[in-house]
Structures are given as structure tokens and as C-alpha cells.
Design goal:
The complex is a heterodimer of chains A (about 240) and B (about 300).
Chain A (H helix, E strand, L loop, with lengths): L1 H15 L3 H11 L2 E7 L7 H15 L2 E15 L10 E7 L5 E6 L4 E5 L2 H7 L4 E3 L5 E10 L2 E10 L2 E11 L5 H16 L8 H5 L9 H27 L1
Antiparallel strand pairs in A: 1-9, 2-3, 2-6, 2-7, 3-4, 4-5, 7-8, 8-9
Chain B lengths: L1 H8 L1 H27 L7 H33 L25 H28 L11 H14 L3 H14 L3 E6 L7 E6 L3 E8 L2 E9 L20 H16 L6 H13 L24 E2 L6 E2 L6
Antiparallel strand pairs in B: 1-2, 2-3, 3-4, 5-6
Helix pairs in contact in B: 2-3
The chains are: A alpha+beta (about 240), B alpha+beta (about 300).
The structure holds zinc ion.
The site of zinc ion has 8 residues of chain B, from loops.
Chain lengths: ~240, ~300
């Protein structure tokens, strides 16, 4: 049994010329349980002030700062649909956790993980997909580790102005999202207070999100949902100001 | 036993006495028969009365003679001893037809077995009192001297037996898969996969668990050369904690006479981690304490507690 498994692994490793260490890390990365949610900005405070407060709260809890992170998202329209179909959106996202990869999500459709030079391909495809300039959203901030939790506290910016706050919490020891949701929820409560998000829809739809290569996509889907919410808020705020 | 032999020697007297009883019964019957029949039909009343009276006297004398005979024999037979070890049931041995009703020999056998049983039960209970389930409790005293005597016999169990015990335990717990390896000679190394929660490597010597290490379900259990990695600890604090507790459990579940029971108890305990991330602490009701879920499982009740909540 084990010999067979080893055999397959060795063959794969040789065929792909993948160093073992790398292979192992890749394996681990894919299988964490992760939840992304938006943190409301405190009343009478700016985004930056709220983020600073959250930093302090995390550090009080005993979380250790471990570098920084970023996630960004560019939006493309389909063009040249001769048959009069409504134009669809394509999102191309990057994540500092996988700096050599790129995730492409079709609105309500399929998604794919690609190499970083997918961006170059998009430039070549500009007769079909047009970059919606000024729609670039990104979240940047610090990474914290607390026991087996990984917390990424980011400021969401659109057109280089801060619009909201994102919190990504990863529980690295567990591979089944449904199993540890209560645990993650309690952890988020410990530094965010009672306004904890509901179970992310990607969790609910597949209880056994195990070893499915879509796990990294799940995180990106959650960021995309969050960016969508932030964008909508801005539209509403803009309307009320007018 | 002496009484039984004695009784056997008097068997002749017994049979004579029984004959005497039969004779007495028939003579008594004869008395009442003649009384019932009344006077016989003779020519004169005088002759009739005489004949009846003489017959009655003869019959009574016969009864008297038989009674005397029985009394004489009864002194020969003697009283059955009351100090018989089986009391009145000892009289069963007097039954002459042994082949048809071997009650007495069966009774003796049963008696012997129950004696033996009591003796061994006594020994076992004194042993068990010394060697309770805790290894730490019998570090000193007489039991410590006894242990080396016991261990060597259980250390040389045939591998086939170990395989059988392990596969039987594996069948008991459907959510647990147990793979058995023998990387170095006869000692077995078990790879236990519990649901989608954890993997435990259990190093055995014969049926004794020597060492255990617990890692996450998605962590590698093989080292870079493709062998089972029994040394490096988990990258996650949860599983490092669980490893510590599992080592404590190994020290807790100890029963040198029955190593298979120990392995089964340990596996039952390990199985309670199936809901490691889903069970709140039974004391504080929370999921997290210092960033860790309840990693302790009570050895008896298998309830989940945080390490700090378990006292
Ligand atoms: Zn507790």
C-alpha cells in the first residue's frame, strides 16, 4: 500500500522536477480552512484608525506579526459580442500567498488558476476582454500568526482611497470547513466583538472541501464577494451625497 | 473420604438390613391380612377361635423376630457420619448403581472446580489490586519485582497474533483506519488515520505501545526518503498538544497481563478526537482557550476539556 503510494509520488516528482519540499508546502497550503469577512468602520473613526485599533487588539491577544500580504482584483468586460448578448465580467485576481499564480473568475461561471503571465495573455486578448480602468480593488495589510490561526488584516482601497477593512482568518490545522467554523467564529469574536459574519457561502455549499484544488479559489471567491460589497457601499454613499 | 470407605465396608450389613426390613414389612402385612380375613370356616366355633388365635400369635411372633433381627443389623450398619464434607449429599455415594447415575462423581468434580476457581480468583484479585491501570502507581513494592517476570512472555508474541489483535481493533472503529508496517524486523508501527482530523503514528514493541506521535490529517507522515517519519513533530500546536496527551494516555493505560486490552483502550481514547474541532470544552463551554481547542480527553469519560480546564 505505502510502497505503491511512494512509487506514484516519486514518479510524479521526477516527471515534474518538483523538489520535495516545495511539493509538501503546496500540499499544505491548499487544504487550510479560511474565512474572509468585512469589518465595519467604527463610527466617527477613519478606516486607518479602525485598522490601528484592530492591530492593537490582535497584539494584545498575543498574535505575532509575520510580514504583510496583498490581494488585488482587476475587472474586464467582454466586448464584441455580436449576437447582442449582455456583456459579462471577468475578474483577474492575485494573492501574495501565491505570487506566481493568478486566479481568473468568470461572473457566475467557471474559474481557473493560472501562471502569473496570464496577465500578459489578457493584454493580447484585449479585443475580447477590455480592462475596466479605475475598477481595480485591492486589500493590503499585515499578517499575524496566533497559534494555528493566520490572520490577515487588510485595508481595502479603490482608486487609491481607503474604502473598507477586510479580515481573513485561516485555521491551518483543520481541513474540513464545516468542522471548525464554530472555532473560527469564536476566534473572530475575540478581537472583533459580537459582529461576526455568517458562515461563508462557500463553506455551506460544500462541507467536504477537502483536497479539491478549488480551495485556493474559495479564498479568492470570498475576497471577490467582499470587494463587490465595498464597491456597492461606495455607490450608495455617492448617491446619498448627491 | 474415610467415612465413605467405612460405609463401603458395611455394605453387607446394609443389604441384610434391607432384607430384614422387607421381611418385617411382609410379616406385618401377614398380621393384618389374617385379621382382615377373620376366622376360617371350621366345624366348631371352639376350633375356629383356637385356630385364629394361634395364627395371630404366630404372625406376631414373626413380626417380633423380624424387628429383633433389624435392630441387630442396624447396630452393624452404624450411624451415617454428620461431619461428611458434603453433608447429606455425601450419601449419594451410597447409591450402588454408579454407571447409571454418576451424580456423586460429578458433584465431586464440580466441588473441586469451584475450589480451584475461588483460589485463582483470589490470586487474580490480589494481583489486580497491586497492578491497577496506572503504570505510575506500581513503580515500587512487590509488583515492581513481579513485572519483569510477566513482561518477557508478552514481549515475544508471534507477529500473527499482533496482526490479529490490531485488525480486530480496526474493525471495531469504522471511522478509524489502521495500517500496520514492520519497517525494522518484527516490531510493528501503526499508522492510524482518524476521520479527516488527524493521523497518529504508534510505535509498538510486541503489543506494548512504545511511542506515539500525532499530526494533522494533511501533514506528511512520510519523510523525504519515503519512509514512515516517526520522529518529527507536527507543525501545528494543536497536534503537538494532542501528542503530549497521547503520551500521557500511554502511561495511564497499563495492564501488563492483558496488553491487547491496553491497545484497545488507547484506541478508544484516541477515537474521541474525531470531534476535536467541533466539541466545546465541558467545563468552560468555549471552543478556544489560548488559541487551542479542547485538546484533553478524560481517560474514563472521554469528555473534552482544555488543558487548563481539566482539573
Ligand atoms: Zn475550557
Amino acid at each position: 500500500m505505502s510502497r505503491c503510494r511512494d512509487g506514484i509520488r516519486t514518479v510524479l516528482r521526477r516527471a515534474l522536477k518538483v523538489p520535495w519540499r516545495f511539493n509538501r508546502r503546496w500540499w499544505v497550503r491548499r487544504t487550510c480552512v479560511c474565512s474572509v469577512c468585512q469589518v465595519p468602520v467604527l463610527e466617527g473613526k477613519s478606516v486607518q484608525q479602525t485598522v490601528d485599533m484592530l492591530h492593537r487588539q490582535l497584539e494584545q491577544l498575543g498574535a505575532m506579526k509575520q510580514g504583510s500580504f496583498w490581494v488585488d482584483c482587476e475587472t474586464y468586460h467582454t466586448t464584441g459580442t455580436a449576437s447582442g448578448q449582455p456583456s459579462k465580467l471577468l475578474y483577474v485576481m492575485h494573492n501574495s500567498e501565491a505570487p506566481l499564480s493568478c486566479t481568473a473568475l468568470f461572473e457566475g461561471g467557471p474559474c481557473l488558476m493560472a501562471d502569473g503571465n496570464f496577465d500578459v495573455l489578457m493584454v493580447k486578448l484585449k479585443s475580447h476582454f477590455q480592462n475596466a480602468k479605475g475598477h481595480k480593488v485591492e486589500s493590503r495589510g499585515a499578517r499575524y500568526r496566533y497559534c494555528d490561526f493566520l490572520v490577515k488584516l487588510g485595508t481595502v482601497t479603490m482608486n487609491s482611497s481607503a474604502r473598507g477593512i477586510s479580515v481573513e482568518v485561516e485555521y491551518c490545522a483543520c481541513v474540513v470547513p464545516g468542522d471548525c467554523w464554530n472555532l473560527i467564529k469564536e476566534f473572530i469574536q475575540s478581537f472583533l466583538g459580537p459582529n461576526v459574519p455568517e458562515l461563508p457561502s462557500v463553506f455551506a455549499t460544500k462541507a467536504e472541501g477537502l483536497f479539491v484544488p478549488a480551495d485556493a479559489v474559495d479564498t479568492m471567491t470570498q475576497y471577490l464577494e467582499l470587494f463587490g460589497k465595498v464597491r456597492k457601499q461606495q455607490v450608495l454613499q455617492g448617491a446619498s451625497v448627491r | 473420604m474415610a467415612d465413605i470407605v467405612n460405609v463401603g465396608m458395611n455394605l453387607d450389613a446394609f443389604s441384610q438390613a434391607i432384607n430384614a426390613i422387607q421381611a418385617l414389612r411382609s410379616s406385618v402385612t401377614r398380621v393384618f391380612d389374617s385379621l382382615k380375613d377373620g376366622m376360617k370356616n371350621k366345624e366348631t366355633l371352639e376350633v375356629r377361635e383356637k385356630g385364629f388365635i394361634s395364627e395371630f400369635q404366630d404372625n406376631l411372633q414373626a413380626v417380633n423376630r423380624d424387628v429383633n433381627e433389624l435392630e441387630r443389623l442396624s447396630t452393624l450398619v452404624g450411624r451415617p457420619s454428620e461431619s461428611h464434607p458434603l453433608h447429606n449429599s455425601g450419601l449419594l455415594s451410597l447409591d450402588p448403581v454408579q454407571d447409571k447415575t454418576p451424580l456423586y462423581s460429578q458433584l465431586l468434580q464440580a466441588y473441586k472446580w469451584s475450589n480451584k476457581l475461588q483460589f485463582h480468583a483470589g490470586l487474580a484479585s490480589s494481583l489486580l489490586n497491586q497492578q491497577s491501570l496506572k503504570r505510575s502507581a506500581n513503580q515500587m513494592g512487590a509488583s515492581a519485582k513481579r513485572r519483569p517476570k510477566v513482561q518477557p512472555s508478552t514481549l515475544v508474541l508471534p507477529p500473527q497474533y499482533v496482526d490479529d489483535v490490531i485488525s480486530r481493533i480496526g474493525r471495531m472503529f469504522p471511522e478509524m483506519t489502521i495500517e500496520l508496517f514492520r519497517p525494522n524486523g518484527t516490531s510493528a508501527v501503526l499508522l492510524v488515520t482518524l476521520g479527516k482530523v488527524l493521523k497518529a503514528i504508534v510505535v509498538m514493541r510486541s503489543l506494548f505501545i512504545d511511542r506515539t506521535i500525532v499530526r494533522g490529517f494533511h501533514e506528511d507522515v512520510y519523510s523525504e526518503d519515503g519512509k514512515l517519519d516517526i520522529w518529527s513533530k507536527s507543525n501545528y500546536q494543536v497536534f503537538q498538544k494532542v501528542t503530549d496527551h497521547a503520551t500521557t494516555a500511554l502511561l495511564h493505560y497499563q495492564l501488563p497481563q492483558m496488553p491487547d486490552v491496553v491497545v484497545r483502550s488507547f484506541m478508544t481514547w484516541l477515537r474521541s478526537y474525531i470531534k476535536l474541532f467541533q466539541t466545546p470544552c465541558q467545563r468552560c463551554g468555549k471552543f478556544l482557550q489560548e488559541g487551542l481547542p479542547p485538546t484533553w480527553r478524560d481517560f474514563r469519560t472521554l469528555e473534552a476539556f482544555h488543558d487548563t480546564c481539566r482539573q
